[in-house]
Each structure stands twice: as C-alpha cells, then as structure tokens.
Task: inverse folding
C-alpha cells in the first residue's frame, strides 16, 4: 500500500504522468555462480509480481503513444529486453504469460540462429578456460589470473572494458583470437532463432530493432551506422510481416555510445520512438527518441520499490541537442 501511494503521487494519470521503462537482458533458468547478480527465473517472477502489484504495465508501443497523447494511466510502466537471448523466449516468456504481462524485445538480428555477442565470447571464454593464467599479451590485453571463480569474476569486466570500445572490425578480430588462445569451444545457442522471435511476436510481445551487430554507433562512420539501424529494422519487418516502430541504441549511453546524428537517423528512418540506457522516467516533455530506462537491481521488495521510486528524481535527456559528445 505504501509503495502504491508513493508511485501514484510520483506518476499520476494524465498529462503529469511519468513512464517507468524497465530494462532486462537475460533471465537465466537458475543462478549462475559466475554472475550471482544476474536475474534468474525465480527472481524474475518475484519482480514481476511486485510490478503487477504496484504498476499498470503497458506494452511499450502503447505506452509511448499514450505518453504523446497525455493520457497515461496512474503508475505507468513498461518492460523491455535487449539483445535477443534465447532465454528471453525459453524462460522469460512463460513467466510473463503466467503473470499476464507484456514486454518488448529489442533484437540484434545479426546474432540470431547461432550467433554470439562479443561480450558473451569473452564471458564464455573465461568461464570455460582451464588455464590458471590467460596470457593475452599478443592481443595487447595483458595477462589475467583465472584459476578461481573470483579471479574469473575480476578478469571478465577487465577484458570487456578493454575490448568494448575497440573499432568494430578490430573487436571482431580480437574476440576470435581470444577464444583461440584460450583453447575453448564456445556455445552457439545463447541467442534466439528467428522462429523464437516469431513466437514472441505471436504471443503478443513487442519486437523492436537493436541494430544488426550491436556496434557502438558513435564509433562507426555515419553511413555504416545508418545501415546497421535500417537493416535491422528491415530484417525484422520481413520476419514478422509488419512494421517495427521502436529502436534501442546499443549500450545506450548518451554521448559515449550514440550521438545527435544517430538520434536524427532514428527519426529519419521513421521509428515511433527510441530508448537509451540513461536512467530516469519518461515524461510528456521527454524526447521520444531518447527515452530513459532503468535497470532494477533490488533483491528485496523494499529495495526494489525504493530503487524505482528514486528513479523518478533523475532528470532525463530532453532532446538531441543536450547530448555531449566524447
């Protein structure tokens, strides 16, 4: 009751409303010792029950339209997923259906049907490597102790931070060499198949574009960045047989991962709206092509609720002119 009252005051119905957009990536079947904070099935179902108790959860496309019209319901929220992991279909979808909730899934189409994102190549290489010391000096990435679980937990973010902002072609070469040096066999079933994307759509879930190869748009030439955005939309439209009106910027940090020209591209390509990973809530004056999203980390009902409540106080990016390049 306390949280319902607080959320009602922070997000009334009508023109003064605020839209909380939650972002997830994976929902694992069970806990992962390497990533104990990653959301698993039990935790996800618990979070959805809390959301259902407190919020009016809408499909993102409907929420965006009602935000524009100024007629969002009290305590409006939407659920989103990024990237297109197979567990979104296998694990998250049944839980969403049991709880009677909808979500929108932003798909990086280049990884469908057996592909693998660069971060997962890094993670699974370190996870599966049986060496106690991973010597990546030939790649300019140093030497990393990985003999224990804690060593691996430290090595993974260190490597991701070094590789993430490499030029796209160099990043591809780096991760291919990484797995070869480690001598590991990597999984090919982490991402959805095209049939699973279609199944999500048929189940009433929203589908949005998330580029082809999930590059850092700010590191691409403009023509290449626009191709990544447009081709992902076109591929999904051909797969689903209908228009795809929503887009999510890869990584999504304003200024670091995308810039004003990419906001302009999303507008020019005819999307209805686009989402970032800047925290905050969307209001009537928010830029529809830089809608903020929030990652809910709290494990207990109280921490989860207070985290969502604090998120109302964050100032969103209002228009593309406010993005500072870096």
Result:
């Amino acid at each position: 009751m306390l949280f319902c009252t607080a959320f009602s005051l922070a997000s009334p119905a009508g023109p003064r409303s605020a839209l909380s957009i939650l972002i997830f990536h994976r929902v694992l079947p069970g806990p992962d010792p390497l990533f104990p904070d990653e959301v698993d099935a039990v935790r996800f179902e618990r979070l959805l029950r809390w959301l259902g108790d407190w919020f009016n959860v809408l499909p993102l496309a409907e929420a965006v339209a009602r935000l524009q019209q100024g007629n969002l319901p009290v305590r409006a929220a939407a659920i989103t997923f990024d990237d297109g992991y197979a567990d979104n279909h296998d694990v998250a979808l049944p839980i969403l259906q049991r709880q009677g909730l909808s979500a929108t899934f932003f798909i990086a189409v280049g990884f469908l049907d057996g592909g693998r994102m660069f971060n997962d190549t890094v993670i699974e290489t370190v996870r599966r490597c049986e060496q106690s010391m991973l010597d990546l000096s030939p790649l300019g990435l140093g030497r990393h102790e990985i003999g224990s679980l804690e060593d691996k937990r430290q090595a993974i973010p260190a490597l991701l931070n070094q590789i993430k902002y490499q030029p796209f072609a160099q990043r591809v070469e780096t991760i291919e060499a990484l797995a070869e040096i480690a001598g590991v066999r990597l999984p090919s079933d982490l991402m959805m198949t095209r049939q699973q994307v279609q199944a999500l759509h048929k189940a009433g879930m929203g589908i949005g574009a998330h580029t082809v190869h999930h590059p850092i748009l700010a590191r691409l030439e403009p023509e290449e960045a626009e191709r990544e955005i447009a081709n992902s939309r076109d591929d999904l439209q051909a797969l689903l047989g209908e228009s795809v009106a929503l887009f999510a910027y890869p990584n999504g940090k304003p200024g670091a991962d995308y810039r004003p020209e990419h906001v302009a591209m999303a507008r020019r390509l005819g999307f209805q709206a686009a989402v970032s990973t800047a925290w905050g809530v969307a209001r009537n004056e928010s830029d529809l092509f830089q809608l903020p999203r929030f990652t809910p980390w709290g494990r207990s009902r109280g921490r989860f609720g207070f985290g969502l409540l604090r998120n109302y106080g964050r100032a969103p990016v209002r228009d593309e002119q406010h993005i500072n390049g870096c």
Remarks:
- Residues 118-182 form one domain.
- The longest strand covers residues 76-83.
